[in-house]
């Protein structure tokens, strides 16, 4: 079970870039770094000797939402695409493409005819699947016209996670210009939501909720009936959490952390395309319906564009702790050469807590430097720093377990990335820094570093303090295991370091 009003001409640009491609982009899978099927754990900061390379099998699922059934992880996304994996590294494509014959909804054109007719489209956007009390699987689907917030959000049910799903009907509609919306008032795209990007989840007390929304009037949350999978009546569009005035904020996803007792609301800012500046952010609350604040204590209800604007990124860029944006780790002279090692417009994530292993994972799609609009699923391990904020491992998950390290394991040269708080299509190129034995940091930035406990990292860079972890990971860019660090400041800025690998 998943623990999981401006001119129409202006809106054309807004919604074509929101939430999902209108057509699938490279949905076929491919294989990278195929090696031994065994993956050692990271109990010590050992050398590469005796540790097998992880096996990665890549797939394309835009806007992946994760759910685990028995020992298998599934991701469902846009364009009726889905995939599965037993280890979060090697993925198998299950389905792709909104067409009759798709195993998830075999007669999709007839089954969802009302949805397509309302949204004036022939494709679907970001799906979300959850298992409810009756043991059945509920898929929350959505379709959007693309050049306006005319959308429909509904639910279908199946006995098996891989389908076939049977439609139960539309839950919400949006984009009804000049007509009443779900709350009984005239629909206004600056204050009412675009009803896409659902994430349905249980809170710690077993109550069911759905958080959703994209651009337009912002992100909203609804109370749901766990017996029917439908919203409780008389809620309208639900409670607004943030956004509005066509701010580029979408893809909400909720994760509860039992250690910190916070609900973490993950969001994607910017546009999904390779030049769209997608980046992932997070805010938290003690309650599933907020209020949500960032690491500086700012209430995200104020994260919106200025009145009368569209895509006013500067207004909301300061809100939300930023986890990841565009970056590239550039190999230095003497390092072994591997594949490319960077992301472009990573976003629309889901997240998962594996209670048995005590591991947190961030699952998202990303594009890549120099590869255009091709996109694939990526999984990174995630940790929570001393202040209770998530920090994301710099490299994709390769089966690693955080270990106990000594100062001698940490010292040396690192490729350093600062993700800053900007919403920008620029790629943050890594710079070279050194963590010296005397606890100083030199090179592209200056400051101090410290290893506390078994793996806790504290770095003071140019006067700002960052806390996080040190972690030994597999680096695809050098085809080797290296020490890394990931940390976040109180200002909500994330920094990464990846140790320069020996030839």
Automatic annotation (TrEMBL):
Entry keyword annotation includes Hydrolase: yes
Stretch forming the signal peptide: 1-25
Residues annotated as catalytic: 63, 250
Domain Extracellular endo-alpha-(1->5)-L-arabinanase C-terminal: 394-497
GO BP terms in the entry: carbohydrate metabolic process
Superkingdom, taxonomy of origin: Bacteria
Pathway connected to this protein: Glycan metabolism; L-arabinan degradation
Pfam families named in the record: GH43_C, Glyco_hydro_43
Keywords annotated in UniProt: Glycosidase, Hydrolase, Signal
Region (Disordered): 22-46
Site description Important for catalytic activity, responsible for pKa modulation of the active site Glu and correct orientation of both the proton donor and substrate, residues in chain: 197
An MF annotation (GO) of this entry: arabinan endo-1,5-alpha-L-arabinosidase activity
InterPro entries to which the protein is assigned, alphabetical: Abn2_C (IPR032291), GH43_arabinanases (IPR050727), Glyco_hydro_43 (IPR006710), Glyco_hydro_beta-prop_sf (IPR023296)
Transmembrane stretches, start-end: none
EC id: 3.2.1.99
Protein family according to the UniProt entry: Belongs to the glycosyl hydrolase 43 family.
The protein's name in its UniProt record: Arabinan endo-1,5-alpha-L-arabinosidase
Organism: Paenibacillus phyllosphaerae
Top-level taxonomy: Bacteria, Bacillati, Bacillota, Bacilli, Bacillales
């Amino acid at each position: 079970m998943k623990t999981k009003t401006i001119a129409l001409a202006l809106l054309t640009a807004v919604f074509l870039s929101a939430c999902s491609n209108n057509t699938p982009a490279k949905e076929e899978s491919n294989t990278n770094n195929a090696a031994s099927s065994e993956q050692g754990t990271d109990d010590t900061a050992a050398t590469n000797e005796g540790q097998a390379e992880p096996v990665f099998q890549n797939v394309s699922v835009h806007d992946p939402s994760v759910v685990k059934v028995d020992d298998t992880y599934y991701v469902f996304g846009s364009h009726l695409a889905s995939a599965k994996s037993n280890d979060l590294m090697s993925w198998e494509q299950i389905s792709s493409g909104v067409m009759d014959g798709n195993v998830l909804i075999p007669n999709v054109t007839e089954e969802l005819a009302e949805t397509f007719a309302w949204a004036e489209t022939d494709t679907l956007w970001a799906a979300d699947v959850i298992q409810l009390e009756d043991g059945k699987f509920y898929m929350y689907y959505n379709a959007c016209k693309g050049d306006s917030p005319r959308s429909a959000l509904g639910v279908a049910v199946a006995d098996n996670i891989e389908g076939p799903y049977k439609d139960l009907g539309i839950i919400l509609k949006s984009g009804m210009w000049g007509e009443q919306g779900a709350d009984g008032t005239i629909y206004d795209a600056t204050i009412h939501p675009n009803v896409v990007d659902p994430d349905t989840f249980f809170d710690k007390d077993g109550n069911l909720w759905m958080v959703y929304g994209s651009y337009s009037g912002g992100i909203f949350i609804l109370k749901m009936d766990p017996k029917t999978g439908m919203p409780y009546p008389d809620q309208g569009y639900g409670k607004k959490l943030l956004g509005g005035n066509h701010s580029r904020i979408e893809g909400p996803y909720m994760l509860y952390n039992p250690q910190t007792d916070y609900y973490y609301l993950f969001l994607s800012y910017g546009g999904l395309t390779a030049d769209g500046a997608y980046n992932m952010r997070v805010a938290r609350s003690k309650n599933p319906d907020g209020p949500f604040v960032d690491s500086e204590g700012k209430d995200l209800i104020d994260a919106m564009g200025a009145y009368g604007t569209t895509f006013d990124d500067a207004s909301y860029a300061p809100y939300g702790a930023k986890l990841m944006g565009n970056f590239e780790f550039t190999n230095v002279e003497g390092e072994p050469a591997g594949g490319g090692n960077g992301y472009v417009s990573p976003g629309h994530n889901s997240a998962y807590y594996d209670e048995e292993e005590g591991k947190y994972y961030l699952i998202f799609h990303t594009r890549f430097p120099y590869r255009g609009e091709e996109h694939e699923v990526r999984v990174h391990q995630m940790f929570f720093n001393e202040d209770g904020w998530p920090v994301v491992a710099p490299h994709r998950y390769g089966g690693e377990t955080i270990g106990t390290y000594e100062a001698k394991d940490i010292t040396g040269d690192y490729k350093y990335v600062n993700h800053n708080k900007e919403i920008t299509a620029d790629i943050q190129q890594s710079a070279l820094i050194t963590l010296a034995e005397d606890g100083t940091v030199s090179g592209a930035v200056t400051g101090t570093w410290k290893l506390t406990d078994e793996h806790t990292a504290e770095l003071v860079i140019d006067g700002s303090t960052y806390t996080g972890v040190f972690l030994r990971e597999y680096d695809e860019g050098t085809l080797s295991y290296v020490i890394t660090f990931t940390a976040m400041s109180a200002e909500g800025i994330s920094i990464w370091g990846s140790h320069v690998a020996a030839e």
